[in-house]
Design brief:
The structure is a single chain. The chain has a domain of 72 residues. The protein is built from 4 helices and 2 strands. It has a two-stranded antiparallel sheet. The longest helix is centred in the middle third of the chain and has 20 residues.
Length: 111
């Protein structure tokens, strides 16, 4: 997977944007997304902090914590966040590696 950094104007909460996904250097599909508002973002941040603290208390490793966070994002249909989470682990194994392979299709078919 390749990535690029967005350097344009800041995206605005509540606004809908279109993202052009490329496959093999060719345009693949337009994906629409909406930037969430501050209240929703704070709720998710609180949930993720609680989840991470619970996992650390169980002595879970980084990959297990990433898997838990990715699962949280998937349950909430936050596909881009899930994708970012699974790529936060350099060489995942097991379920995290499987999710990494499946998310691009979920992202492109969630519209």
């Amino acid at each position: 997977m390749q990535s690029t950094n967005y350097t344009g104007k800041a995206l605005q909460p509540g606004q809908t944007y279109d993202w052009l996904v490329f496959e093999n250097e060719s345009p693949y599909k337009w994906v629409s997304f909406q930037v969430m508002d501050a209240q929703q973002r704070q709720r998710i941040t609180t949930d993720l902090n609680r989840l991470e603290n619970q996992r650390k208390a169980k002595k879970d490793d980084r990959e297990a914590i990433s898997l838990a966070k990715a699962s949280y994002f998937i349950q909430n249909q936050l596909w881009v966040d899930a994708l970012q989470q699974v790529y936060s682990v350099e060489k995942p194994s097991g379920e995290l590696a499987q999710i990494r392979q499946e998310i691009p299709d979920k992202l492109c078919n969630s519209q």
